[in-house]
Amino acid sequence: MYSSSVESEIVMVGHVNDKGITELGVGLISVGWMGKLHSRAYQALPVVYPELRISPKLVHAADTAADRAEYARDVLGYAKGSTDYREVLADPEVDVVSICAPNLLHKEIGIAAAKAGKPFWIEKPVGRDAVDTGAVADAAREAGVATSIGYNYRHAPAVERVRELISNGELGRITNVRAVFFNGYASEPNGALSWRFKKELAGSGALGDLLSHVVDLMQYVIGPITEVSGLLSTIHQQRPILPMGQATHFAVIENGELGDVENDDYAAALVRFAADSPGAGAVGTLEASRVIVGPQCGLGFEIYGTEGSATWNFEQMNELKLAVNRTGPSQGYTTILGNSSQGDYAAFQPGPGNSMGYDDLKVIEAKKFLVAVTGGEQRNSTIDEALSDASVITAIASSAVDGQWHKVQQVPGATFGHSATGNG
Ligand SMILES: NC(=O)c1ccc[n+]([C@@H]2O[C@H](COP(=O)([O-])OP(=O)(O)OC[C@H]3O[C@@H](n4cnc5c(N)ncnc54)[C@H](O)[C@@H]3O)[C@@H](O)[C@H]2O)c1
User: Fold this and answer.
1) Whole-angstrom Cα distance, residue 355 to residue 360?
2) For 5-17, how does the pLDDT look when each residue is reduced to its tens digit (9 = 90+)?
3) CA 223 to chain centre
4) For 33, phi and psi rounded to 5 degrees?
């Protein structure tokens, strides 16, 4: 078991203006896909959640690619753009920081942000492995800064509803689960060899990049995973080389120079959940592939209980399939569209059945982060939870090497919002 969290007061930030609105200066490190998305989430927050009276101001963005720093200033609307992230952390007008750099840099930048006393919202999986994540967690606890992690799928209204149904016991005793992240982003064999395919830069492949989302989702909805048996494989062994900061991992390069893929394309695990969790004693299978043809952003689950079942997939994010009748005319699955009784749905749409999207999940994530750093409800995912997810990933990687079942090191501060008794 990891050592307990250092008990310290969390640093609160923000300035209340003469209208009673809390203003927060935002710093951004790395202006790639996620950097843009975090920026748009901050901008949308006062529109979606006016009642919070929180106003994020885009202050300072950095990216080693000068054109991306310029883009942040000239297009995204940051007041300043730099090519060195240290300038963002040293900026006194920056109250909170989004860290959207490649995994290799999460440890260095996460520790630097904590030492600068800046609460941070960091992208998953927080480093290349549990050692990196643990180092960031130690620094954040020591500095007492609030953290939030980019595990966005847990905010989907349908997912929040399933979590509630399980916590309330409405699906009965959870017996088994099948959860997957089948994503075709690397299904093109000439898809570029970005940092994601390099061990030194990314750590593992589909395991850390995609299965970590599945692990986080299952630990959030069902409860802690305690034991795993893992399996990894690499399907496309070589890819065309792509320099950092040019295009994304979706780029396709014909006739380029080839380099080796150093991590897994496919990852799977058999898992057991904790006996004292909302999903007490459940077992299941988790799978992820980045090279699959067909599914494209297929993060989904089937959760089976003695009284009912729930099925959801991000590709149909607004549709929750529920079975709560064993017999009678309404037996079997019923499809329920998004509605105001599910999570944060009502903040986005006044009536049921209006579809939400991926970007909206980041707005909810921004809200949970900024509410937590301004002293409100602590519903943000935390660095302790990222460490718990990383510990499951580490155990799966170890099991894939020796073929044995591995116990998962438990992280005391990682509650995933559940009480110690497993309810709530
Ligand atoms: N939550 C999600 O659903 C989700 C989706 C995609 C990516 N991610 C995560 O977000 C992170 C970033 O992924 P991305 O897809 O945005 O990557 P990306 O390749 O689009 O962007 C990475 C950016 O980092 C910049 N960079 C490289 N070195 C830097 C340095 N030293 N200082 C500052 N900037 C630097 C690059 O120039 C580039 O602009 C990763 O950790 C990834 O796992 C999360």
Assistant:
1) 10
2) 444 467 788 899 9
3) 16
4) -55, -55
Q: State whether the beta carbon of 105 lies less than 6 angstroms from ligand 1.
A: yes
> What are the structure tokens assigned to 37, written together?
């998305």
Nearest ligand 1 atom to the CA of 62 is: 33
Distance 30 CA to ligand 1 centre (A): 6
pLDDT tens-digit series, residues 140-192: 999 999 999 999 999 999 999 999 999 999 999 999 999 999 999 999 999 99
Distance 34 CA to ligand 1 centre (A): 6
345-to-155, 236, 349, 360, 363 alpha-carbon distances in Å: 10, 40, 6, 10, 12
How far apart are the C-alpha atoms of 397 and 399, rounded to whole Å?
5
Residue 146 main-chain phi, psi, to 5 deg: -70, 150
DSSP secondary structure letter of residue 155: G
Residue 19 buriedness (CB in 10 A; 0-12 / 13-18 / 19+): exposed
Q: Say which residues have a Cβ less than 8 Å from residue 302's Cβ, sequence separation at least 6.
A: 177, 178, 179, 309, 310, 311
A 10 A CB-CB count for 150 gives: 24
What's 280's DSSP letter?
T
Give yes or no for a contact between 133 and 212, defined as CB atoms under 8 angstroms apart: no
Burial of 391 (0-12, 13-18, 19+ CB in 10 A): buried
Distance CA 63, CA 245 (A): 9
CA-proximal residue: ligand 1, atom 6 (nearest): 34
Ligand 1 touching residue 123 (CB < 6 A): yes
